[in-house]
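Mitochondrial thiamine pyrophosphate carrier structure dump, as promised
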Amino acid sequence: MVGYDPGAQGTALSPEEAALAGSAAGMVTRALISPFDVLKIRFQLQIERVSSQRPEGKYSGLFQAACCIHSEEGLSAFWKGHIPAQLLSIGFGAVQFASFECLTEVVHKSTPYDSQTAGVHFICGGLAACSATVVCQPLDTLRTRFAAQGEPKVYRNLRHAVSTMCRSEGGLTFYRGLCPTLMAVFPYAGLQFFFYNVFKKLLAPPPNAGKSGGGLRSLVCGSGAGMISKTITYPFDLFKKRLQVGGFETARVHFGQVRSYRGLVDCMVQIAKEEGVRGFFKGLSPSLVKAALSTGFTFFWYEFFLNAMHNLKEREREQKTSPKT
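structure tokens r here:
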């Protein structure tokens, strides 16, 4: 069960255990969906129109882009920036789920609202994601820079990237795009938890049906929640990526046109003028595939690890209470 469950107070998990399950879920999920993330970022940063019918830029579709990246940069290119991305996923998952469990518990104990309602999950999920975003934004910026660079590489490794960015752009560069990120992450994460709660209740088995199929339900509910949430909030993710590669234009020249933006509003205006409304949704296709897999696997693995820890605690309790022979 995601969120504080008043019906399971006797076996409630601590925030530390929620953080451990969240970080483990993030780590496993990141390794599986990294290729889709790289494709999404490449599409988001392309100024030219992304179209297989009338190709204008370097990438024109999912299959073409995947083949192009593989032939030019090799299979490992689909895991570019994987180290900062893994650190991001582990840290984000730990902070988000630990915060979410704490917030839902506070709401249930301090307000008249039930912690298992969809509305509470929306608010608590959004706030938990915002706290995780502030903590992990520097890693997200590093992940974007690594995924965006082609060959030859601008950054040799994580340490070189950090030192180069600090020296040439200053420490605040790690928080580029934080404003649109927070604007997007609250409704995005909130809607993820909201729809996951709704779908889990809709697909809940009858009381006498047992617990079989719980993992599959988590995967399906999480995938649906991720796709709906991503579609609604996608433009803000694109703005964030465009702002994060500011000052990184030289490494982007051979991918096509590059642009510099003075801030969020200027970014929105320039994209609307040059690329039209469709420009706000560049890279949506791989992003939806990634969102379905990412959110589905995150909730699946989170509940899997929670159940594993719950079963382990129950086994230890039984061993302590059972009479010694």
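DSSP finds nine helices and no strands in the chain.
lmk if u need the other ones
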